[in-house]
Amino acid sequence: MKILVLVKNVPEVAEAELEIEQGALDLEDLEMVVNEWDNYAVEEAVRLTEAAGGDVHLMTLGGEDDEDVLRRGLAMGAHSATHLCDEAFEGSDPTTLARVFAAAVKDGGYDLILTGVQSADLGQASTGVLLAQELGLPHATMAIALEPGAGEVTVTRELENNTSEKVALPLPAVVTVQSGINQPRYVSIMGIRKVRKMTIEMLEAGDLGLESQALGREASSVAGQSLALPPVGEGAQMLTGSLDSVCGQAAAILREKGGLA
Amino acid sequence: MSGVLVIAEHRQGALREATLECLGAALSLAPSLGGQVTAALLADDPQSLAGELQGRAHGLKLYAHPELAAYNPELYLPVLADIIAASQPSLILMPHSSQGMDLAPALAGRLGLPLVTDCAGLSWSDGALSVQRNVYGGKAVLDLALKPAATVVATLQAGAFQAPPAGAAPTASDRTALTELAPRHARRFLEYLAGVVEDVDIAEADILVSVGRGIGGPDNVPQAQALAEALGATLSCSRPVADAGWLPKSRQVGTSGKTVRPKIYLALGISGAFQHQAGMNNSGTIIAVNSDPRAPIFQVAHYGIVADMFEVLPKLTELFKG
Amino acid sequence: MNPLRMPFWGVDAAWLFYLLAALDMACLGLGLWEKISLWRQGRRAAPAPSSKQALGPALADVLLGRRIWRGGRIAGLMHLMLLWGFLGLFLGTCAVAVDHYLISFLHGRVYLWFSAGLEACGLLLVLGLMLALARRWLLPVARLERRPDDTLLPLWLLAVACGGFMVEAARLAATAPPWGAWSFVGYGLAGLFPGPEAARELFPWLWWSHALVSLGFIAWLPWSKLAHAIAAPASLYLQGQPLAVLAVAAEEGDLAALGLRHLLHLDACTRCGRCVEACPSARAGEPFSPRDVLHRARRQARLKYSPLYRLPWLRGRRQALLERDRAAGWEDAWYCTTCRACLEVCPVQAAPIEMVRKLRAGLVEQGSAVPPPLMDTLEKLHRYGNPWVAKKGAKAAWAAGRDIPDLSRSGQEADWLYFVGCTTSIDTRAQGIARALSDVFTHCGVSFGTLGKKEPCCGDIARRLGEQGLMEEQIEATRDLLNGRGLTRLVCTSPHCFDTIKKVHPLFLEEGLPLRVLHYSQMLHRLWRQGRLTFDHPMPLKVTFHDPCFLARHNRIVDEPRGLLGAIPGLELVEMAEHGLNALCCGGGGGRMWHEIPGQANLAVRRLEQAAATGAELVVTACPLCLIMLEDARKTGGFEDKFGIIDLSELVARALRLTAAMDEEAV
Predict the structure, then answer these.
(1) Do B311 and A223 touch (CB under 8 A)?
(2) Considering only CB atoms, which chain A residues are within 8 Å of B73?
(3) CA dist., res. B227 & res. B233, Å (int)
(4) Residue C643 pLDDT > 90
């Protein structure tokens, strides 16, 4: 099976305090990491090929530093990688990005294309499905299990309220992978060193036959955007004072509202 | 070319509540963009599901076919394309749910429409849509102004909009029985699977002590368990904790876990991603402890404590022990 | 009549014996060849250094059995009897061969003494074997297993020795030479034969059965645990060699490419089980045993690299066994706390600490058998330079309000670099150590600074968890920072940082400045001896000292902390049952601080049970990891009313009545 996985480098924000400068995120103190959902997707792809043979190809779109995310995936067991890197891509909306990916993917002969359900940065959760539409392929989102069969794949999709559904897709198909589908392996520094010499295919807009007018901000459906921090503690009454004091206050609230002795 | 089209969502014979939130958003936006709110419901037996839609939209379009019992984008897309071609709505809304995430980009891609997802706020001015989105795990807010477009597809964050009261809009409905669904589809719905049922039902608990990523690891779970025991509470968690296997999936609060409404929800080290908030924001009293004063959890909490949860945990446990 | 030896007396068909002996030698040779070819492959993977200095202690360990003796008198006695009995008989046999084939010298008085000597050796061997069997079957020694060959081997050897005596006895009974009494055992046994004729008749039967039993034993020798006779001396010698740059063994999570040293360790082990008895994890009932790790490694090495297993008809078996091992996995490698207790008691210095590290390196490189909490720790270490928080620059928070020079900046100078360490600078409980220590240094007028926010991780955690690449990166980063600022004198809070900076960093620091590294207990002890640290206020307290593994066992520092405790007037030190080099590990080492494994026990609670038995009011330690582990165990194990846990630095600060330290919540 030939599998393509789209991966993305994102700033790790889970435990970080964000700073915004002029309507954009200040990346200086943030570490760039593989998007959590994409990491699950790479692991799933590698496991599928480990079990049944085949190749895993990775693709990312981003700046020069984002090559790291491909090296990491190669160290996990992917076989080759493509880096779409062009200033013209900057400011593209998901629809345009899907068009770029489609141009890069269409002749690849992939049986299965995996992406993360969403990215940890803007969380638009749309690139994978848009790509499926561009390629005219069937898709399924929120996969928490994949079982490849003859010419098709059975996908268990996570739904709300602790339920899920099983759907079958004929191959080739696009599937977006939900976190928790597997336990991604650890990627050691040695592992990354070992793939340092692997060649990564670099492609620019021109290589894909795309005109720069059809890309970037010009082609985006977004006219303007600005990022801000949410207001501090809006809504919550903040308990202040020494640790003992706030704990005392919290205990009083718990007693009152919870009817505790 | 006007009005809002809401794609109704249903599963296993029940309308999904998030549809009503979309209708609420649509009704409040409709005056400014001019036009009416229409809900489209595709189902095997749409009439039986339409009750809650009555009085909450101006128009109701019911499409019936036995195969529409379960959602399948490939059955939905041609039907929706016809509706859109006929009614030319300015805005198409659906929940940012497992179905909305699956359907909205496909619809936008198929029809070449602009798409914005997971919107927490919507406004319309000068023929263009502006939206507010929570990004970076809810740690920042992104305001997006869209370029003017004939039709925009948007999905709405769960819990961000209020369902309108019944009777907010007089409803005219029409029903179309679909005789044929074309083309023959590639994706097949197989079956629903119920989640694993475990010993504890967190949805039944009066008090929940809920831990997030801040718990750090399974080693620290007993500390939280001790507090839960002292309070006579049940222990629950956010998605990262369940994903990591530190607590079973059945303890997870949030859209992909369980929706809970305890009397007291004590959130420890939970930053409050919106998929989590949507599962607990109707709790009686929410007390949040987080070391980051900007943690989004403080926006839904009634009381907030900015502190290291490991300093608060033992003190609180002490106060309720014995 | 000149007393002399009579080879092949009364035996016909000597040619048959020679034929059998040749076959036997082939079997012995095959066994030795297999071992040597395995060892040679290890040599290619990582040659072991060799130095003359290690020779003396190794020889003493071998010939006197010092390490065995230390672990138990009876075991020591048994081994000495077997060793000298066996060695004597072996040398005697060699002498006979020389006499028979080369130069004849065994006649007259020499022969008589020679005979008597061999009698004594035989007797030693027999008694030793009986003692060995008794220890396994009659005296309860829990650590000893009762595997079939554990019984068969001594019985067989007993048959060899007794058979030898019977052959001799028959010969003496038949020939009754005047010097017969010199062979005192055989002479005594000769009386068992009814007469010379009967003895003569029985003799060939006895002789041949003895020959066959002996030949069989020799053929079995290299395949049995008696192969340790060759491997153990080599193992003892090599363990005394300095650490080489740590080559990684890593392929598919198993033990590929073990060095010569480790392959010899594998064959040196006789399964005596002292490591199991000493291991804090095994003792606590966790599913881990150093002995099992070692023997699985040994089986793996054999399956993979033995020339015998390349034979076509063994290939299927090899595959099946490898598959079974692969399915079982090596996850138990995560239980090891790297406390070194196993190596401390191992008579042949073969316990698998380094092997565990290599196993982990394999697991880390392969990636999917790394427990998720450890992945998280390693990722934090990689991205944020500490195992605790996903935040850069978290390492200076403890020093808020203290004016400590930041030596990572140019223009800031001090005599000593205080290397605080990740845990001490970040964990809220352990931060107390940093504050206390900096106050004590200031009090004593020590010129010191830290690396502030820029302090890197020394690489210890990565090293213990087998993340070789990360360890190298961290060591390089530390070296660059130290060299760039010309810093050469370090004092560490954590025995873990101390150990790694002292022992591992130099291996990577060829071009770097020579480092001088102290643990803070050494530093404070020096200050006290120099009179710069004096204790004027009495502190009437009964305390016990928990030796951190990386201070005591790994670096032999046991007197300095005790010296400091003794210097505080009024303080009474009571020792726990296991202390100093035998101290029981708190369970925080080897990366176990950062993860949870199925079936894990609370090792620190077991340690505190020993502390409680002393009646001490305070448990003192000198390591941030020990401090955290013991502090947690104090709460979870119900020791809260019994005693407090304090770091030595905090105790010193309290004894000096340094106000800032008095604020600490410790005790």
Answers:
(1) no
(2) 139
(3) 8
(4) yes
CATH number corresponding to C246-366 = 1.10.1060
Whether residues A186 and C375 touch (CB distance < 8 A) is answered with yes
The span from the CA of C457 to the CA of C381, in Å, is 8
Supply angle C-alpha C568, C572, C576, rounded to 5: 125
Looking at beta carbons, which residues of chain B come within 8 Å of C594? 217
| Same fold flag, C387-525 and C532-662 | yes
The owner of tokens 């490189």 is C365
DSSP states of B130-196: EEEEEEGGGTEEEEEEEPP-S-EEEEE-TTSSPPPPTTSB--EEEEEE-S---S--S-EEEEEEEPP
Q: Subunits with at least 3 CB pairs below 8 A relative to chain B? A: A, C
Contact C594 B245 (CB under 8 A): no
- For the stretch A32-91, pLDDT in tens is 999 999 999 999 999 999 999 999 999 999 999 999 999 999 999 999 999 999 999 999
- Tokens 């790297």 -> residue: C338
d(CA C448, CA C450): 7
List all chains that touch chain A, counting a touch as 3 or more CB pairs closer than 8 Å. Answer: B, C
- The CATH architecture to which B4-177 belongs is 3-Layer(aba) Sandwich (3.40)
CB atoms within 10 A of CB A231: 11
Judged by CB atoms closer than 8 Å, whether chains meet at A16 and C391 is answered as yes
Is the pLDDT confidence value at C132 over 70? Answer: yes
DSSP for A63-132, please give it.
-GGGHHHHHHHHHHT--EEEEE--GGGTT--HHHHHHHHHHHHTTS--SEEEEESS-TTT----HHHHHH
Residue A66 lies in a domain: yes
Which residues in chain A have Cβ-Cβ distances shorter than 8 Å to B186?
138, 169-170, 173
Which class would CATH give B202-320?
Answer: alpha beta
Residues in chain A with pLDDT < 50? none
DSSP codes, C485-533: HT--EEEES-HHHHHIIIIIGGGG-TTSPPPEEEEHHHHHHHHHHTTSS
Q: What interface predicted TM-score (ipTM) does this complex get? A: 0.90
Cβ–Cβ gap C373/B311 under 8 Å? no
Together in a domain, A132 and A255: no
Q: Is C384 touching A (CB cutoff 8 A)?
A: yes
- Yes or no, beta carbons of A15 and C390 under 8 Å apart: yes
CATH of domain C387-525: 3.40.50
- For domain C14-38+50-232, which CATH number applies: 1.20.950, 3.40.1130, 3.90.1010, 2.60.40? 1.20.950
Residues of A with CB under 8 A from a CB of C: 12, 14-16, 29, 31, 33, 76, 183, 185-193
pLDDT-based confidence at B255, cuts 50/70/90?
A: confident
Chain A and chain B share a number of CB contacts under 8 A equal to 280
- pLDDT of C245 reads 46
Helices B98-111 & A94-105 angle (0-180, nearest 10): 70
pLDDT band at C595; cut points 50, 70, 90: confident
Overall number of domains in chain A: 2
The token pair at A77 is 């067991």
Identity of the amino acid at C471: M
Q: CB B287 to CB A227 under 8 A? A: no
Query: Where in chain B are the domains?
Result: 4-177, 202-320
Cβ-Cβ contacts under 8 Å, C373 against chain B? 217-219
Does C475 contact chain A (CB < 8 Å)? no
pTM assigned to the model: 0.85
Task: Indicate yes or no: CB of B294 within 8 angstroms of CB of A25.
Answer: no
Beta strand B91-95 with B140-146: parallel, antiparallel or unpaired? unpaired
C532-662, CATH topology level: Rossmann fold (3.40.50)
Contact call for residues A129 and B106 (beta carbons, < 8 A): yes
- Take residue A40 and report the two structure tokens written for it: 């699950």
Residue C533 phi, psi (nearest 5): -125, 110
Q: Look up residue A39 and give its two tokens.
A: 């990491």
